[in-house]
Write a structure and sequence with these properties.
The protein has about 140 residues and is α+β, with helices and mostly antiparallel strands. About 20% of the residues lie in helices and about 35% in strands. Strands 2, 3, 5, 6 and 7 form a five-stranded antiparallel β-sheet that branches.
């Protein structure tokens, strides 16, 4: 079980919810099948962030898909990381790109996609998506 010994959030009886954006909350564990290409999909149907202009909450369904290499993201740490956007003033497109960048740097997967489906405001739904892939040498 040495691949999970560095996980500090999972299994704790009390959960501390972050009050500000914090990518340091992310935790990872070793992929036991790095020789296989497979896809991991994670859904967060209750994502919120703040409009940087109005400070009104923006609600979204965030979907994350990736093909792991050496590491997988631990789901409770991902939940807390995504929760950390709750008080962050950022446009929808910025939030999706920030999540993709943070996860790609942290996990170093073969590829990673993040899609956001933001609830309509003013009659318009915003659905940004980004795909990051490894850099070819």
């Amino acid at each position: 079980m040495s691949d999970v010994e560095n996980l500090t959030l999972l299994g704790q009886s009390k959960t501390e919810y972050p009050q500000s954006y914090s990518p340091d909350l992310l935790e990872r564990f070793r992929n036991r099948y790095p020789q296989q290409d497979y896809t991991v999909e994670l859904d967060c149907p209750e994502f919120t962030c703040l409009c940087p202009m109005t400070k009104q909450p923006d609600f979204a369904h965030i979907s994350i898909r990736y093909c792991p290499r050496e590491f997988l993201v631990e789901s409770k740490s991902l939940k807390l990381y995504l929760f950390s956007f709750r008080n962050k003033g950022e446009f929808s497109e910025d939030s999706v790109n920030c999540i993709a960048r943070d996860l790609f740097q942290f996990l170093q997967p073969k590829w990673l996609e993040v899609q956001g489906s933001f609830w309509p405001r003013g009659g318009i739904a915003i659905k940004p998506s980004v795909r990051l892939t490894e850099v070819e040498s």
